[in-house]
Amino acid sequence: MKKFIVKFRIGVSIIMTKFLVFVLRLMGRGGTSLPGKIALKICPELFSEFSDRFRIIMITGTNGKTTTSRIVAGMLDQAGIKYVTNKSGANLSSGIATTIVSALSLFGKPLVRTALLETDEAAFKTIAPMLKPELVIVTNFFRDQLDRFGELYTTLSNVREGIKGSPDTKLILNADDSLCASLGRDVPNQVIYFGLGDKVYPDEYIEANTDAAFCINCKSRYNYHSSFFGHLGHFQCPSCGYERPHAQIECTQILEYDNLSSTIEIQMPSGKITVKLALPGLYNIYNALAGAAIGRILDLDENELTHVLEGFECGFGRMESLDVEGRNLRLILVKNPTGFNQVLRYLLTQNDNCVLAFIINDKLADGTDISWLWDVDFEILSFIANKIRKFFVSGIRAEDMAVRLKYAGIQHENIFIEHDSEKLISKMIEASGEKETLYILPTYTAMLDIRKNFKERFNLKEFWE
Amino acid sequence: MYELNICHLYPDLLNLYGDRGNIISLSKRCQWRDIEVNVQNISIGDTFCYDGYDIIFMGGGQDYEQTILQDDLMNNKRKGIIEAVESGKVFLAICGGFQLLGKYYRTHTGKDIECIGALNLWTHAGETRLIGNLVFQVDFLKTQNHNGYVVGFENHAGKSYLGEGVKPLGKVIKGFGNNGEDGFEGAVYKNTFCTYSHGSLLPKNPALADHLIMLALLNKYPDFQGLAPLDDELENLTRNTLIKRFTE
Ligand SMILES: [Zn+2]
Fold first, then answer.
1. How far is the CA of A244 from the centre of ligand 1 (A)?
2. Within 13 A of A81's CA, how many CA atoms are on the CB side?
3. How many CB atoms lie within 10 A of CB A15?
4. B65: which chain A residues are within 8 Å (Cβ-Cβ)?
5. Angle subtended at Cα A265 by Cα A264 and Cα A271, rounded to the nearest 5 degrees
6. A66, A185 Cβ separation under 8 angstroms
7. Does A147 touch chain B (CB under 8 A)?
8. Chain A residue nearest residue B235, CA to CA
9. What angle, rounded to 10 degrees, do the helices at A121-131 and A93-102 form?
């Protein structure tokens, strides 16, 4: 009888969810979270009930989840594997439930056999043990929205907890992140590490390592043989010997690196490949390595891997590019100090004049505490201050951002506050010359707002498509 | 030529919530007035000779990181910190730093962790974290055209209580403050200022930043005449915008 009730609830939740998704999209809404939320209310067993019907790949970690998911999606496409995936940051249990239900027929039969799920670090703890993923990628751990996630070490133990119940899960971990790599120690799971080789990146502009300078085991200060960004690097603890593990997937050379792309050499267990990534920035090299690890597991050969990595374009606002009145407008999401620092470091590769706008909101999804802006090294913008025609600030916390820029050494006269996003774009266009680049760096909800604006003005496509 | 030496205690461990914004603010506001500033980072294993410093700053950290520095703090720096506070050095301690200056921290299990004990205050672990925007009114900042309001963001599990001889820094207008019960925020003892307000505190509360700089200069140069005003248009705009938003 109990089994029957569960089956009944599953049936009801599937029908309800599908109906809601349909109606919400008809109304022009995303419909990525609400249906799943209701599905889980009706049927809390949803995840555990369907875990064995899917091959599940989960991706979690602070930065790079979305881009890495997109690269893995490319790998799956290349391998001819049909899958469902959650898009546009719908990565809490509600969004994941919506995704799972969308992959079921009305009678609960899976329509595809693989689910690629970007998963919020805090949600991972409860979802992973129910879904029992075959593969888990953990990108990295950085400080992020302390008001929501709490301390970095809490986030780490949430993920550790999530992995605990699944000894058969294959872990794909960042070797250069002492926190992330520690997930692979003393566990029965098979572990594949990815990372950058020793000294492959010149450590100019290296910001202070503040997130995890001390050993996770014994609290001694790590020594670093190479340092890449944040606390990522070749670390070694002088007391207990914990050190950066050997990486089976390693970037052994960065051959070219500019504001549009980077050309890298990747050492795989099967041999070396040279790839030109259409994604700029050091952080995207890590995302590509994590993606390549999955490609290996899917048995793609060197040519296929190269094909996927080179053909990849940016996902939802992590870095989007569009032409606007003869200007190249680039939209790059910023959400925590390390990610923001990486974006600024990327801007340093800028050769021509440009206009820069920061849109800072403090809604729940952005983090209500914006003090992290003071942990971002805006000071390095002075290296290219002569190329930035104007600095615009916008969003709920525009004024805070203006003060931050002032204290980073940007001239007060060159900082402009504009709360109206329509006017902001017009002013940016006005301030720039033909073919110049307009950079817009928004926080999460600001990104949603600005995209909505672009959708109306420049016919930008919907992000859930 | 005036010169101030700032000491940042445990910058690699007590560095949450953009705490270094306070150091940036103090430094810039001095530099803009041609006051020379030197910032020295003092962490685990370093000797702390307080007499070389005019302003000492200690921020907040994650629990894990606070346990890392516990030994070094209690065995190597405690004495110096108590003497610095007693001698009237300008000292700013935020969040975790505030708690560490007190006598003890009582955990959920009722265990008391001994702290520096420079100030007669103590902290008890609370049931829930007190998180959110914080506005409080500081009497000594009140002037004809300044209502003394200070704005920041608080995020703490500990509830702090002040003992005899220690005064609150301000009265809570919006938020929780020290414990969410008595309506007070922060602590003042001699020239030591403690608060739960980060976010970052000094950049958008320039009057408080200048008050600290002023006290430090008076300590060092008794004939000091007063700070030249700065163009604080952006800072005041931010402060007023936030106060309006959080109190209306
Ligand atoms: Zn160690």
1. 12
2. 23
3. 15
4. 214
5. 155
6. no
7. yes
8. A403
9. 40
Query: Per the CB < 8 Å rule, is A404 touching B203?
Result: yes
Domains annotated on chain A, with CATH: 50-311 (3.40.1190.10), 318-458 (3.90.190.20)
Q: B3-247 has which CATH code?
A: 3.40.50.880
Q: A160: which chain B residues are within 8 Å (Cβ-Cβ)?
A: none
User: pLDDT tens for residues B98-148?
Assistant: 999 999 999 988 899 999 999 999 999 998 889 999 999 999 999 988 999
**8 Å CB contact between B232 and B51:** no
Residues of A identified as active-site? 369
* Residue that has been written with the tokens 């914006």 in this structure: A370
Q: Which of A73-82, A143-152, A281-290, A330-339 has the lowest mean pLDDT?
A: A143-152
Coil/strand/helix, residue A163: helix
Average confidence score pLDDT of chain B? 94
Q: Kindly tell me the sign of the dihedral angle through the C-alpha atoms of A26, A29, A30, A33.
A: negative
**Ligand 1 center to residue A140 CA distance, Å?**
19
Cβ atoms of residues A359 and A395 within 8 Å: yes
Q: At what angle do helices A65-78 and A302-310 cross, to 10 degrees?
A: 130
Count of CB atoms within 10 A of residue B143's CB?
Answer: 9
> Nearest CA to CA, how far is A155 from chain B (Å)?
12
Residue B30, min C-alpha distance to chain A (Å)? 12
The residue ranges of every structural domain in chain B are: 3-247
